[in-house]
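2024-03-11 09:14:02 DEBUG pipeline.ingest accepted 1 chain
2024-03-11 09:14:02 DEBUG pipeline.ingest length=258
2024-03-11 09:14:03 DEBUG pipeline.predict start
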Amino acid sequence: MTTFRLEKPEEEVRRVGFVLEKQGIHERIPAQVGLNIDVSGSMKGLYDSGIVQSALERVLPVALYFDEDGRIDTWVFSSDDRMASLKPVTSSTYEGYVRREITENPALERILWGGTDYEPVIRSNLMAYGLLEERNAGGLLGMIFGQTRDTFGEETRSGVPAINYFLTDGMNSDHDAAWRLLSEAEHAESQIYYVMIGIGDDEFKFLREAAEEFPNVGFVSAKDLGRFVGGDDAYEKLLPAELCSWLKHEHEGEEDHH
């Protein structure tokens, strides 16, 4: 079982920069980095073995490179509305994070080891970055039933694009709702890119189709997550060419505004 331990963060950040240089990014482009982690029942073995902790440690140097605050905005999700936004991962909190903040966190007892739905956590991501507002739908029916209307925005609240890594090992049960949300965010040109990492042997039909359909969604296969994060080419996989092109486009658009 190949895994990864973050022992020299500065050295890993340099490796991230080297990978980006090969993709034509020669100066630091600021970005926020987020991580959605599947806590459905089928993922439990990956938590117990420490592999999810290894994955988190492998993503952290990416955040340290892109994000001035050096943090990973972190969410966990399972089925229905069972999801939560957690404390961010930083260079001072990453050790023991998964055990402390997820598997042994009593506040998550209701959320852990359920099924798999994507829409609620994607909605939470978009709202956290200021890319989505839920407003009262208005009118009599809106008042009676408390209906809301989604309003999507292009720029994040900070004006800095967001990269969100999505770790999941199975098909979601909310295909239509999740697809609609991704579609509306893409149509609004929302400043967020999803790197969907499919763990295991599932076909990942939804994730693959989303990656083909939306220019701000990419799919990466990780049949063995331990080998994926422990491999010498892990950063190449975490920073695929399409993401790098998207970042350059967002950066050039930002420069045009000044």
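2024-03-11 09:14:41 DEBUG pipeline.report Residues 37 and 76 are 5 Å apart (CA to CA).
2024-03-11 09:14:41 DEBUG pipeline.predict end
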